[in-house]
Every structure is written in C-alpha cells, then in structure tokens.
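Review this fold:
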Amino acid sequence: MLRFALVVALASAVALGGTPALAHFDAADRYTHKACPASAANRIDPVNVVFMTWGTWGRAESQIESHAGWTASSGSAQAFTDHGSCASMHTRRASGHGSRFHIRLRGQHADATLGWTALAAAHHEDLVLLPLACGHAVDANGPAGSGFDQGRDELLRRFTDAGHSSSRVWWGNTQSFKQCDGDYAGSDGWTVFIQLHQASHP
C-alpha cells in the first residue's frame, strides 16, 4: 500500500509540473464541461476519481458494474479535456434511474508511471419532481459532504472491499455548482486513485 501511495504521489507531482516527456497523464483540468470547447464558464462537475494501472475506460466500466452494481446507463453527456483537447465522455454508469449514484468517465493515454488511466466524475443525485420537475440534482453541501463526496466515497468503498488498492490526492477542485433545485454542491477537493486489475469482469 505504501508503494502504491508513493507511485500516486510521484505521478501527481509530475502531472502537476514535472517533465512533460514522461507525463502522459493530464491533471491540468479537474472538471467536466457542459460542451466543447471547455472553459471555466461551462464547468459542471469536479473530477474526483482516477482509475489507473489497467484503467482503460472499458475496464473501469466493467469493474464499476461488478463491484458497485451500477449498471444503468442513463444521463446526459459531459465533456473532459486531455492535453488541451476537449472531447465527450466515453461512458457513464448509474445505480438506478431515480435518486442514485452516477458516474461519467473518459479514458486517457497510457502513462509511464500510472499505466492506463481514466478520469471520472462520481456523485449522488436526487430526482427532483416537486415543486417543479427539473431532473437530477446533486446533493447539496452539508455536514456529510456533498453528493460529489458521497459518490466518490461510495465507489471507493465498493472497490476497496473488492481488494483494489487506492490512495487520495488533494486536487483542490472545490468550486460549487448551482443545481436545478436551487441548492449548491461542490467537492471537498480530494480525488481518489483506484488501481484496476487487468481482467474485466463478467
């Protein structure tokens, strides 16, 4: 576990200001976006999960379904950035269709230290029907953390229970976003790195 944490810390330091030739992992933009081109004005969710080692988006999707049981695929699309380019997510998974856990993912290039990586934005959200139906709203900031923190922590719990190594890195992406019910939700700024296994799951 200590070796894993050191690898994550080293890779994060390189990604944030190290040698570009070795740093294919891009942590410069730590938010998803409503559309491309990405800008500070169209941020939507904080990126709060990084899958690594064998972290292709397909393996991440498979292991989320297996360990967390999030098999629904509904929800809107969002965009991620990678080395200055902006592109739509690769996939999304959810625990249901009403009040639920939800995650969006996009894969990146392989990194010399972290291996294959995929960025993800996880959260818990409620389906808002009253007084006016507006869709899903991420749980507001509160003593137990926002829906962004709850989604990240639930996913982390499911993966660590299944034997995956993990580590937390401070990314500082704490911007709060107004939800359709009028409340505000923001991350506590911590991102979890979860090591994936090579084998996908049935």
